[in-house]
Amino acid sequence: MLKGKKRDVLILDDVWKEISIEEVGIPKPTVMDGCKLVLTTRSMEVAPSKGCEEIKVEPLSEMEAFDLFLNKVGSKLLDIPTLQSTLKQTVKQCDGLPLAIVTLASTMKGECDVHIWENALNELKACIASVENMVEKVLERLKFSYDRLRDPKIKHCFLYCALYPEDFAIDKEELIEHWIVEGFIDEL
Prior knowledge:
Largest sheet: 2 strands, parallel
Number of domains: 3
Strand order of the largest sheet: 1-2
Number of strands: 2
Radius of gyration: 21 Å
Order of helices and strands: EHEHHHHHHH
Number of helices: 8
Distance between the termini: 48 Å
Shape: globular
């Protein structure tokens, strides 16, 4: 179907493994046909050919990462002097990955106890100490945040969202209705 198309753009988002675009049925884009292929990935090994133009998106700087974290977790934590070093070390463990930072911040939001933060930092370090692969790094950080969810019903609600395809627009009211039917939450 794509062979007859002219001046189209095909976007393959968040590709995790090497693929052969020909095997998938995508003709190799050429200057003559005007078609473009955009592939986003966390791994440069995934690119289908060395002739691709590579645009590397760098992780957030330490300052950008910390600002994002504070924006999500709340800057009032900076009012606790004994917590500042632990906060910075915790954010540093996220390697500048926005998803990991936001997820971590949401699981620790409202927590002001220095000991709980230090324990969380130690747990996070232990989770990622042996991880080498970028995909595994992201998944380990998400798993850490999931494991910190205290209420089993919230864990069920979170996992229920995994049933939807990536980037799917989830209707909030419909989702809540499903959670009620499943018994995750009581009727509102």
